[in-house]
Amino acid sequence: MKVLLATDGSKCARQAVRYLVRHRKEFGARPEIHVLNVQQPLPPRVAAALGRSEVQRYHREESLKALRPAKRTLDAKGVRYKPVCAIGDPGETIAEYANEGRFSLAIMGSHGRNALSSLLLGSAVRKVLARSKVPVLIVR
């Protein structure tokens, strides 16, 4: 089974990691697990002022920081995975990665916001659910 775990390093994302670890046997003997972090692009003026290499360094560092809690948990439990860093709109990028990678399942944490605040703030989960052709498991 091919499983995508989307994480931003938040408390909700850490709950999704723990869910994956607790239920990993349900994903087969040797699931292929990708742990994806998506960074929002910097505003064009900021990116231009910093320069390409500095922007790449910034995104790499931020992604590694966001992946660190998942890495720590998965490593401690001996779970094999592939870390993946991407830049773009998180909801769109997660759905695109899941669809193009032909994953069996995408797992992500939810902040559990009510409908009104989700509508006002936007939601990566909502975008993934709308765009994904892959089943999505939302962990609260």
The dominant shape is globular
Count of structural domains: 1
Helix-strand makeup class? alpha/beta
Distance between the termini: 23 Å
> How large is the count of helical segments?
6
List the secondary-structure elements in sequence, H or E: EHEHHEHEHHE
By CATH, the superfamily comes out as HUPs
**Rg over CA atoms:** 15 Å
User: Tell me, what is the CATH class?
Assistant: Alpha Beta
Side-by-side strand order of the widest sheet? 3-2-1-4-5
Helix amount: 40-55%
Mean pLDDT equals 92
Count every beta strand, where a strand is a DSSP E run of 2 or more residues.
Answer: 5
Major sheet? 5 strands, parallel
CATH third-level topology: Rossmann fold
Name given to the CATH architecture: 3-Layer(aba) Sandwich
- Low-confidence residue ranges: none
Q: Which band does the percent of strand residues land in?
A: 15-25%
Short description:
The protein has 140 residues and is of the alpha/beta class.
Description:
By secondary structure, the chain is of the alpha/beta class. The chain contains 6 helices and 5 strands; from the N terminus they run E-H-E-H-H-E-H-E-H-H-E. It has helices at residues 11-22, 44-50, 52-76, 90-100, 115-121, 124-131; strands at 2-6, 32-39, 82-87, 105-109, 136-139. The protein has a 5-stranded parallel beta sheet, with helices on both faces.
